[in-house]
Request: fold
Amino acid sequence: MHDIRAIRENPAAFDAALSRRGVAPVSSDVLAIDEARRAAIHAAETAQAEQNKASKEVGAAKGRGDEAEFERLRALVAAKKAEMADMQARAKAEDERLTALLMTLPNLPHDDVPDGTDEDDNVETHRWGTPRAFDFAPREHYDLAGVKPGMDFETAAKLSGARFVVLSGGVARIHRALAQFMLDTHVEENGLSETWTPVLVREEMMLGTGQLPKFGEDSYQTTNGWWLIPTSEVTLTNIVNGLTVDEDTLPRRYVAHSQCFRSEAGSAGRDTAGMLRQHQFEKVEMVSVTHPDHSRAELDRMTACAQGILERLGLPYRTVSLCSGDMGFGARRTHDIEVWLPGQNAYREISSVSVCDAFQARRMNARFKPSGGGKPEYVHTLNGSGLAVGRCLIAVLENGQQEDGSVDLPEALHPWLRGKTRLSADGTLV
Reply:
């Protein structure tokens, strides 16, 4: 959410930053509601002061035996009490209107974020690895002979409908090994704290990280009000919801492996084949809570953590800086990492690492106490995939495929597969 004081001080700059995200000017509406709210607060405070003054004079009039003045003052006290209540209710209503409007506005991009409207305007900043030269036409993951026995979309459709999958045998084991490899690497080498969290959350947790109120259609809600998390960013970030932590406890770096659930609203017809876009999937998520002075460096550190997983697996990738029009709702700057998929002859997103500054912290009321004293300040929050497990499985299968439909598996994964090095053409690990 946005700092109303910053909007008051420079509404033109606020509108200009929103325009970079394709949002029409809104500061005049915000400030009109803010002015009405502040006027109602002032009127309530004035009425309360007048009520208090009249209340003190009532007793004196009674003591003097001035019955007419006593009745006038008593009526004034009652009128001012009613006026104060009315103004307080009006101030509360305007405050709710202001909050509701601000909650729908995306975060403002950093000045160095590239301008643009969609993915075509993103800027490549880094590339690693050389896509393998095949002496046969590479297939997509679901067309590989060794994969077909362990990747069942037909049974999943019977169980749940479209965009689900049943994994079994060697494919399921590779999928599990990838998640364990990611977790162990992030914990033992990257210094993140392994965390396990619920996948069902209260509505205020979705509000805190920005999935609500604007993007409710992208997620699933149960009949009793819980929401299924679209990513464990929701739970990990909300660990500090409502807290004021000591500065010396920052940064807090979390990592979790979880099931994720997305309705994929608006994606009809996109990536319907295979595992690339599913309603239920697994992700290893990184979240950092930092001091404001350190969040930019933390973004680069988290990006390197995600890149390192791909490098250990020998998977070519590129990193792009998202343009202002392609960033997620809560981000101020985002690095997307795209892995090479030979079956599609394209780079596809496998991680998105974002810094949100104080945007989520304001929604969550998450602060820290400066070690040198002074008023509590809002923390900065960051999140990023480290990585999307299903998409990493796709990349491993496609990049390691052989002409007979078997798959040579990355050396880094062998210890998590008990020494198995290959998915054979009949779907067994050998």
